[in-house]
Amino acid sequence: MMLEDEIFRKYTVDWNLLVSYGFIKEEKGYRYVTNQVPGFKMIVFVFKDGHVKGTIWDTALDEEYVNYRIESQNGTFVSEIREAYIALLKDIRVHCFKETPFVSKQANRIAQKILEGYQVSPEFLWKRDPLSGVFRHPKNGKWFGIIQHIKADKLKNKAQGFIDILNVKLDEQCAAKIVEPGFYPAYHMNKKSWISVCLDDTVSDEVVMDVIRQSYIINSPDPYWLIPANANYYDMIHIFDDTDITLWKQSVPMYENDIVFLYVSSPYSSIFYQCEIVEANLDHVFENENIHMQKAMRLKLKKRYDISEFALERLKEYGIKSVRGPRHVPKALVKLLEE
């Protein structure tokens, strides 16, 4: 990798700052020239696509000096030239560039769109792989996207250089997507559930964001809960007579906007209410001989059911044999409860 590519790998140019630094605008970009090392002229060029290229010119010999690019050349003189050039590039980076999370323009655009749409920023989890960023679902921490910087030939046969890719989970949709340009069997992930997308503008941002949306949904926690209420401890008949809000014990991870169906125990053994969680994970310590509470949530009444409508005998038809603690609700039953 060229020195310039390494130093500016995760940076994008701020064009407004180049001129103030001393760059001269030309047809193909911006040029900066300095004679800070006696006998040598250092030239840095920023092309219109943001790519940076540099040369060092030996003014005495009137030819390009290249020894500083040869790693095996480590004598005192060449090392001084190399260090001075690297220091110049880093100074330009500080004053004219801004850091970005990823290498490619499309990867950075997609990261910004994910932030705007889902309020999720990438997490860089591996010191040995600082260019791989994971996007986690805010409710359960599951990965719904991973952007990685890999050798291009890992996906494209005989391709040169490096590329940014996005891994998303599409489950059974993988087979259909894999035939489309820019989509490949997942790199370093389960190929039955995940797929890789090249972030080299082969696939439009709109299509990339659509597969991200699908992956986000697939990785979302089930928002429908069936929670038991002991009729001996709570007045479940009148609990919502004077208000549509109640404070309720929360014993498992749940989130705002999740839907809770309150199942009242014997002698009723039936679902009484449908509620929405309006606040979750509240610190609320309460104890008596029957109730032990550390966390609570606020439930807002959405719907009442006839006491006999969703009794346990009917729930058994959907695989619910008992309700001893919070549990998810089968989709077929949710459909009925929502009608």
TrEMBL record:
Q: Enumerate the InterPro entries for this protein.
A: YjbR, YjbR-like_sf, YjbR/MT2646/Rv2570-like
Top-rank taxon, per record:
Bacteria
Q: Which Pfam families match?
A: YjbR
SUPFAM superfamilies linked: YjbR-like
What is this protein's name?
Uncharacterized protein conserved in bacteria
| Native species | Faecalicoccus pleomorphus
